[in-house]
Amino acid sequence: MISRLPLDQQLDSLRAVLSRNDVLTEVLTRTATLDLPGWYVTAGCLFQTVWNVVTDRPPTSGIKDYDVFYFDGSDLSWEAEDEVIKAGREVFTDLPADVEIRNEARVHLWYEDKFGVACPPYESTEAAIDSFAATTCCLGVRAETDGRWHVYAPHGLSDVFNLVVRPNPVLAPRSVYETKAARWQAQWPELAVLDWPAPSVTTTWSGG
């Protein structure tokens, strides 16, 4: 079982599994040419590729897009981000998939309007990955110029390989987690979806 391997071997296995998704490897290679600060390919395209391989599905099955995060706090204007998005559109134009590029330094400017809760400004791309609705989603990969992969996995890889979806109640509302989890479980019924934690109840002892 991959999740019981030493961490260095898990990383080797992760690269072997993700490399079976030809679209993903192209996104990694081409994103590197954009020279974006602090970039990662992240989210569904990674863990869903693992789910597909583990469950003997085609590596690209059910993956609706490929997310590229970067972090540039020097210019928070939409115009600057849109310029990067347009450059990416040229780089990825012939790929059979949608590639979405987002500057995570700007997320706090629009997050509350979209999700109904305020998002403090992120300090890095890693901080943005940390706030995904499920810990299983907290995974990022960057292709280095020497061919090595830089992997960010703050919660490890065991849940990813074991098909466990675990809530991460640090920012995203419960409704976001449950909506995503339901959609994923419809596509991958083998998933074990863990419940959102119940709110803690604080009691005050009166001494009586």
Explain what you see.
This protein has helices spanning 7-18, 22-32, 44-54, 78-91, 111-115, 125-130, 158-162, 174-187, and strands at residues 40-42, 65-70, 98-103, 140-143, 149-152, 164-165, 192-193. The chain has 208 residues and is α/β, with parallel strands linked by helices. The strands form two sheets. The chain has a five-stranded mixed beta sheet. It has a two-stranded parallel ribbon with strand order 6-7. The chain is globular and about 40 Å long.
Parts with pLDDT < 50 across at least 5 consecutive residues:
202-208
How many helices? The count is 8
In whole angstroms, how far apart are the ends? 54 Å
Mean pLDDT: 91
Cα gyration radius (Å):
18 Å
Q: Can you write the helix and strand succession as a string?
A: HHEHEHEHHEEHEHE
Secondary structure category: alpha/beta
Properties at a glance:
two-stranded parallel ribbon, 8 helices, disordered C terminus, alpha/beta, 208 residues, five-stranded mixed sheet
